[in-house]
């Protein structure tokens, strides 16, 4: 089987023969006549995963305006992709050198392949050269909605306790 794009590159086609001389290409849409995508679940104006978004979350004044890690977690929560549950959340980690790593919740319509914000932040930590061991993560802040149906706190605490037992974890509801 050979998959290729058409001359105008607007549609993929599939060849279901191995003989180069007699190749017949069938449009991929033939095999997927009732495709399913984000447009089937979301409104036409809803931003997709990689498109910019702002969830409109903010803190009420609580005397911690200068907490950079807390505001980084809020920023991550505002970039979170949670169109199905409506439960955006974000995590910010800080290492012993003071570098901050952010992670946003990324939701899938199938739910179980969704990426929790603490895992996204750990990926950012590893990908940005924060190697040298997870025990170098010393503080974590999670921001989530107070009325969230999907809560991230328990999973975040459990994971961070396992990989960096001395990490201080704080949770803020918005």
**Unreliable runs:** none
Q: Briefly, what CATH class of the largest domain?
A: Alpha Beta
Report, as a whole number of angstroms, the end-to-end distance: 52 Å
Count of domains: 2
- The ordered H/E elements are EEEHHEEHEHE
On the 0 to 100 scale, the average pLDDT is 83
The secondary structure category is: alpha+beta
Number of strands: 7
- Count of DSSP H/I helices: 4
Family: Belongs to the cytidine and deoxycytidylate deaminase family.
Domain CMP/dCMP-type deaminase: 64-174
Subunit structure: Homodimer.
GO cellular component, one term: cytosol
Key terms for this structure?
174 residues; four-stranded mixed sheet; 21% strand; 2 domains; Cytidine Deaminase, domain 2; alpha+beta; 4 helices
Give a structural overview.
The chain has a four-stranded mixed sheet, sandwiched between helices. β4 and β5 (100-104) form a beta hairpin. It folds into two domains: 2-35, no CATH class; 68-173, Cytidine Deaminase, domain 2, CATH 3.40.140.10. The mean pLDDT is 83. The chain is an alpha+beta fold. The chain is 22% helix and 21% strand.
SSE arrangement:
Elements: E1 2-5, E2 12-15, E3 25-27, H1 28-31, H2 68-79, E4 89-95, E5 100-104, H3 117-127, E6 137-144, H4 153-163, E7 168-173
GO molecular function: cytidine deaminase activity; protein homodimerization activity; zinc ion binding
GO cellular component, one term: cytosol
Pfam families: dCMP_cyt_deam_2
Q: Care to give the gist of this entry?
A:
The chain has 174 residues and is an alpha+beta fold. The chain has helices at 28-31, 68-79, 117-127, 153-163, and strands spanning 2-5, 12-15, 25-27, 89-95, 100-104, 137-144, 168-173.
């Amino acid at each position: 089987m050979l998959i290729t794009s058409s001359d105008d590159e607007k549609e993929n086609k599939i060849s279901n023969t191995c003989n180069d001389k007699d190749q017949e290409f069938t449009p991929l849409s033939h095999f997927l006549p009732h495709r399913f995508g984000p447009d089937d679940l979301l409104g036409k104006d809803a931003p997709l995963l990689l498109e910019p978004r702002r969830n409109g979350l903010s803190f009420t004044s609580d005397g911690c305006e200068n907490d950079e890690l807390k505001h980084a977690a809020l920023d991550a929560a505002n970039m979170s992709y949670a169109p199905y549950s409506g439960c955006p959340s974000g995590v910010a980690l800080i290492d012993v050198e003071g570098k901050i790593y952010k992670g946003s919740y990324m939701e899938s319509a199938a739910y179980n392949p969704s990426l929790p914000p603490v895992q996204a932040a750990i990926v950012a930590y590893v990908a940005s050269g924060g190697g040298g061991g997870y025990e170098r993560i010393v503080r974590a802040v999670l921001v989530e909605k107070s009325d969230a149906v999907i809560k991230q706190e328990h999973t975040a605490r459990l994971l961070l306790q396992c990989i960096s037992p001395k990490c201080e974890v704080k949770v803020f509801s918005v």
